[in-house]
Design goal:
This protein is an all-alpha fold and 208 residues long. Helices cover 94% and strands 0% of the residues.
Length: 208
């Protein structure tokens, strides 16, 4: 569990730092979001590598445990064979060989008990590692799901940003059109023409 937390904890801290840094210099939303996707993708790759190493360690531990169980069974088989041989020689009255195989049986049982102690110590650790690997795999799946969501939201946010930029450009263009509206100039020119017409009529009346 500690290793799982350290793996994803480092990734979360790195991702958070990258997001904060990009938000601080968020001049181009698309570039910021593209960089965020790249960083999170790299973080997932780093997580995959760390998880692969953890899985590799687990497989080695599982192999060692399986081998110890095999050795345990072999020593048990040797102990049983020695016991049977000792009984056979004892029935035949061959006490020296019976005692010899009794001793071999005791040695084999001692070896089996030693290996069993080792198995009892290893098995819980392997089981804990197996649970940890499953949790890490689940966490990696969640990260990949978040990456898919991030890419989807990236596309949506970029589309919204472009729409906002287009609206701003239209508004800016409209404001320029309003400022350069020739109707006001036309009104002043019309007033000038009316004054000239009035002056002409006045001159005609004076001439009469």
């Amino acid at each position: 569990m500690v290793e799982k937390q350290s793996i994803f904890g480092r990734i979360q801290q790195l991702t958070r730092a990258n997001i904060n840094a990009m938000l601080d210099r968020a001049e181009d939303p698309q570039k910021m979001l593209d960089q965020l996707v790249r960083d999170y993708t790299n973080n997932i790759a780093a997580a995959e590598q760390a998880i692969a190493q953890t899985i590799g360690n687990l497989r080695m531990a599982e192999a060692d445990l399986a081998n110890d169980r095999k050795v345990h069974a072999e020593w048990g088989g040797k102990a049983q064979a020695a016991v049977r041989a000792a009984e056979k020689y004892r029935l035949e009255g061959d006490i020296p060989n019976a005692n010899k195989f009794d001793e071999l049986a005791r040695v084999a049982l001692k070896k089996q008990i030693d290996v069993e102690s080792q198995i009892n110590a290893e098995a819980p650790l392997v089981e804990a590692q197996q649970k940890q690997v499953e949790q890490l795999k689940s966490g990696l799946v969640q990260m990949k799901d978040k990456l898919g969501d991030l890419r989807s939201r990236r596309d949506s946010l970029i589309a919204r940003a472009k729409t906002a930029q287009a609206m701003a450009q239209v508004t800016q263009a409209a404001s320029k059109i309003n400022i350069l509206d020739p109707s006001s100039e036309l009104g002043r020119y019309e007033e000038l023409v009316r004054r000239q017409e009035a002056m002409a009529r006045g001159q005609i009346e004076v001439a009469q």
